[in-house]
TrEMBL record:
GO terms for cellular component: cytosol. It comes from Amedibacterium intestinale. InterPro entries: Cof, HAD-like_sf, HAD_sf. Keywords: Hydrolase. One of its GO terms (molecular function) is phosphatase activity. This is Hydrolase. Pfam families: Hydrolase_3. The lineage of its organism: Bacteria, Bacillati, Bacillota, Erysipelotrichia, Erysipelotrichales. The keyword Nucleus does not apply.
Length: 266
């Protein structure tokens, strides 16, 4: 199959989050793809401001950000967006205040901590995402700007699940389990990386059969299922791997490079 476009998840796939590493073999393979005229795109849960360290090494043709809720072209012009409704963000703020949950909103090009500043700050520091991170003690920035998702830090996992179950317009992804908290991404229920990808395919007059997608987590499942070739990382769990066509090596063993070499014979 002559694939024409590649979508790469970042954390746990292309990017080693804990030590800010993209292996050189992965960068070399991506450069070889470009020589063949293949489009190389990011498909990540990260907002734009949390892509800075990665973009210092790679310039993507498109970026599917915030799990499909915010899509940019190579010049970082907006192609598609699906922000949270203003009344929904108000409810999230109120719920977090009542339940003493840490809260951070992503606004596309910036992130604002509302509650539990230092725990949320340390979470961002440990994930190398401190750029354009601010604190809003007035809890009001979302009233003037579109929020695309919320990050909740809480000890009460069951309460978060109950909140999501009472809001059909929302879904959640568990992104971190620590000794003293759970962290959740909260999105519009219709947001998914595959939805963002479809906006790009439409613009480029391509179809899913033209795609190769790489991922390691549950938020990658839909794009792995729909791609002409879905490749799961070796570090993905068995459930995620079950939706892929192939499994490559893990993020520490040049998994993306190995998968690209087999898919494109480079």
């Amino acid at each position: 199959m002559n694939y024409k476009i590649v979508f790469l998840d970042m954390d746990g796939t292309l990017y080693q989050t804990e030590n800010d590493i993209i292996q050189q073999a992965n960068l070399d393979a991506i450069n070889e793809l470009r020589k063949q005229g293949v489009l190389v795109c990011a498909a990540t849960g990260r907002p734009l401001n949390q892509m800075k360290l990665i973009l210092e090494r790679i310039k993507f043709d498109y970026m599917v950000l915030i799990n499909g809720g915010y899509v940019l072209d190579k010049e970082q012009r907006l192609l598609y967006e699906n922000p949270l409704k203003s009344e929904t963000t108000d409810e999230i703020v109120s719920w977090c205040n009542t339940n003493k949950s840490g809260l951070m909103f992503h606004f596309g090009d910036s992130s604002y901590i509302y509650n539990n500043f230092y725990p949320m700050y340390y979470f961002c520091r440990d994930h190398h995402v401190l750029d354009y991170l601010f604190y809003d003690e007035n809890l009001s920035y979302h009233k003037r700007h579109n929020a695309y998702n919320a990050v909740l830090m809480t000890k009460e996992k069951n309460k978060v699940n109950a909140f999501i179950n009472s809001h059909d317009e929302l879904r959640s992804d568990l992104i971190e389990i620590s000794q003293d908290h759970f962290c959740f991404d909260i999105f519009n229920a219709g947001n998914d990386k595959s939805v963002g990808i479809e906006q790009i395919l439409k613009k480029e007059n391509l179809s899913w059969k033209d795609c190769v997608c790489f991922g390691d987590s549950t938020n990658d499942i839909q794009m792995l299922k729909k791609a002409g070739l879905g490749i799961a990382m070796g570090n993905a769990n068995d459930y995620v791997k079950s939706f892929a066509d192939k499994v490559t090596a893990n993020v520490y063993d040049e998994g993306v490079a190995q998968g690209l070499k087999k898919a494109f014979d480079i």
